[in-house]
Specification:
heterodimer; A: about 80 residues; globular; B: about 200 residues; mainly alpha; Nitrile Hydratase, Chain A; 2 domains; two-stranded parallel sheet; 11 helices
């Protein structure tokens, strides 16, 4: 994680704080949740939020994006099986 | 750089494999259009962030009519500047004064006004901030470098309902001659969460 930054990483906005994501899998799982909210729940974020609350409560000290991943896995379980 | 002169990528970690499995499953179900992941990531890394909220704050500082509308109907007034979308459909702006300092937390998860602040910083999502900002806000604010006068009331807003809060910080003294654009440069993310003053 301490490798020198590439130019493209330096170009990302750091003013006002840190980058939104520390690793590619974090941005990927963030976007996957957005995809499910948009395309399986008509933009309703509440079902995902409820799973996230549960995932964080279950393991409060787990890294945030791992709880996010667990929440998305649980949400996907609730989707109807493909026909 | 290894002694062989080229880089060996590490094998994927357990969490990377879980995310890859989710991606494969959701793609197979047709829920992830081509380019969707790249598009979402790019927007949250470069277009959606605290610079949007800073524009809202600067406009409120220079335009009393806008400020009045912003406090009365925050969602509509923020949309006037082109900012809206996920986690921003029910916004409430709370104004700092000499008497009251506002600070925002999400006690249950990580609710945050994405259209105006982007995604939350790591500390906002961590258990100590979520628990302590409710229990001992004055102490935690001081630890974060935001010392408040003893007679300033602290109002803590828990985002765990439908509402997403944005703090309107006080305009710093000595900025009378500044343009709206120059003022926006002064507004920090932390001041709009309420963990800093300007």
């Amino acid at each position: 994680m301490s490798e020198p930054l590439t130019l493209s990483e330096l170009d990302l906005p750091r003013r006002n704080g840190e980058l939104a994501f520390d690793a590619p899998w974090e941005s990927k799982v963030f976007a996957l949740a957005a995809a499910v909210v948009d395309h399986a729940f008509d933009g309703d974020r509440e079902p995902f939020r409820q799973q996230l609350i549960k995932a964080i409560a279950a393991e409060p000290d787990r890294p945030y994006w791992e709880s996010w991943t667990a929440a998305l896995e649980s949400l996907v379980q609730t989707l109807p099986a493909p026909s | 750089m290894s002694e062989h002169g080229h880089h060996h990528p590490a094998p994927p970690s357990a969490i990377e494999r879980r995310v890859a499995a989710l991606e494969a499953l959701l793609t197979e179900r047709g829920l992830v259009p081509d380019g969707f992941i790249e598009d979402v990531t790019r927007r949250y890394e470069s277009e959606i962030g605290p610079m949007n909220g800073a524009k809202v704050v600067a406009k409120a500082w220079v335009d009393p009519g806008y400020k009045e509308r912003l406090l009365a109907d925050s969602t509509t007034s923020i949309a006037e500047l082109g900012f809206g979308g996920p986690e921003g459909s029910n916004m409430v702006v709370v104004e700092n004064t000499d008497a009251v300092h506002n600070v925002v937390v999400c006690t249950l998860c990580s609710c945050y006004p994405w259209p105006v602040l982007g995604l939350p910083p790591a500390w906002y999502k961590d258990p100590p901030y979520r628990a302590r900002m409710v229990r001992e806000p004055r102490t935690l604010l001081a630890e974060m470098g935001c010392e408040l006068p003893g007679d300033t009331e602290i109002q803590v807003w828990d985002s765990s309902a439908e509402v997403r809060y944005l703090v309107l910080p006080q305009r710093p003294a000595g900025t009378d001659g500044m343009t709206e654009g120059e003022l926006a440069e002064l507004v920090t993310r932390d001041s709009m969460i309420g963990v800093a003053r300007l």
